[in-house]
Design goal:
- By secondary structure, the chain is mainly α.
- It folds into two domains: about 170 residues, no CATH class; about 130 residues, no CATH class.
- It is about 55% helix and about 5% strand.
- It has 16 helices and five strands.
- It has a three-stranded antiparallel beta sheet.
- Helix 5 runs antiparallel to helix 8.
- The relative contact order is 0.10.
């Protein structure tokens, strides 16, 4: 009965509209159908994400105007692409972000050499695991650090958003090479403003963040502990802290429709990526503990930020917070979050 219902849905949406669809759209739908999935709104978002990636690489299909203006499940593809750009938590559901280093960046292991940050790339989450790689187009943005790379990445999405609003489908001219046509004053959607890892919504209470900060502080204090068992525990605490932060965003409905909140999209993706990286680190620690060789701690003075994030003296933390604010160092926001639980 369930399969019959699925087939009925596909007849309704695929057969009657097949003549209007590009080969690229049909390829996506065929891959989706192979898993026995129904033709539903989730597929519409997957298609929107894949088309957006294609457009931001200066390519297109044979019928941009028809696809982008066709209504499916109450919205056009243009509206879905713009929604992915403007809603950070929805963006994170349909895209995976990879921070590109060469080689791996964790210096606690013997097999890791000096590395250099290259940039950030995104790929559509479902397609990465279910479609032929040759059919998937990722989007890459370079940067001197993560924050800059995320800003560059989201500026591309912002430019696409504006082009769709104006009905400009000349993606080759816009993205085939770097251009200066984007008006970033319309709405900023860059990377996270803070250089710290944990970012939470303003509605989150001190009580809701208390366990998160305790877990994160344990991680900071023990991530390079020479005892591999304690290092594993530290990674587990980090995962717990990140999950609490991510769940707080979901609890309070994601990001707000304003420039101040839009900048947290990059932070949300970084937390999601850090969670995945931590899980891989635990597997490596369990599988090859002999490779674990953290640097011996020195007696050099701690960075003031590290002091503020570990001290039990609230007045000292407040002093450092003000110093970082005056210096324009956005890490003061992490200290403010921590002070709520002190």
């Amino acid at each position: 009965m369930k399969m019959k219902k699925i087939l009925t849905e596909w007849r309704k949406f695929v057969i009657t509209e097949a003549i209007e669809k590009s080969n690229f759209e049909k390829i996506i739908e065929d891959a989706w159908a192979r898993d026995g999935r129904p033709y539903n709104e989730e597929l519409a978002y997957v298609k929107a994400a894949l088309h957006a990636s294609t457009y931001m690489n200066g390519s297109g299909t044979t019928n941009e105007k028809e696809y982008l203006n066709r209504v499916e499940f109450g919205k056009t593809a243009t509206e879905r692409i713009q929604e992915l750009n403007r809603n950070g938590s929805l963006f994170a559901e349909y895209f995976d972000a990879d921070e590109v280093y060469h080689p791996a960046e964790d210096k606690r292991f013997k097999d890791t050499r000096e590395n250099k940050f290259k940039g950030v790339g995104i790929t559509q989450s479902w397609a990465k695991h279910n479609m032929n790689p040759s059919r998937i187009t990722g989007v890459f943005a370079q940067g001197n650090d993560e924050a800059e790379a995320y800003r560059n990445l989201f500026s591309k999405f912002e430019q696409l958003d504006q082009m769709l609003s104006s009905g400009d489908y000349d993606f080759l001219s816009a993205f085939g090479r770097q251009t200066g046509r984007t008006n970033m004053d319309v709405r900023h959607s860059g990377g996270a403003a803070s250089t710290g890892l944990l970012i939470t919504p303003s509605e989150a209470t001190d009580a809701e963040q208390e366990q998160m900060m305790e877990d994160y502080l344990f991680y900071m204090q023990n991530s390079t502990n020479p005892n591999v068992d304690i290092a594993i525990e530290a990674e587990s605490k980090l995962q717990s802290a990140i999950n609490i932060a991510l769940n707080l965003w979901k609890k309070y409905g994601g990001f707000k429709d304003s420039a101040d909140e839009q900048v947290n999209k990059g932070a949300y993706l970084r937390m999601k990526k850090a969670l995945s990286r931590s899980k891989k680190t635990v597997k490596k620690l369990l599988k090859s503990p002999d490779l674990y060789e953290p640097e011996t701690p020195t007696e050099e003075p701690q960075d003031e930020y590290q002091i503020a994030m570990t001290t039990k003296d609230k007045a000292e933390a407040a002093r450092i917070l003000k110093n970082l604010q005056r210096a324009g160092d956005k890490r003061w926001r992490d200290i403010r979050t921590r002070m709520r639980s002190m």
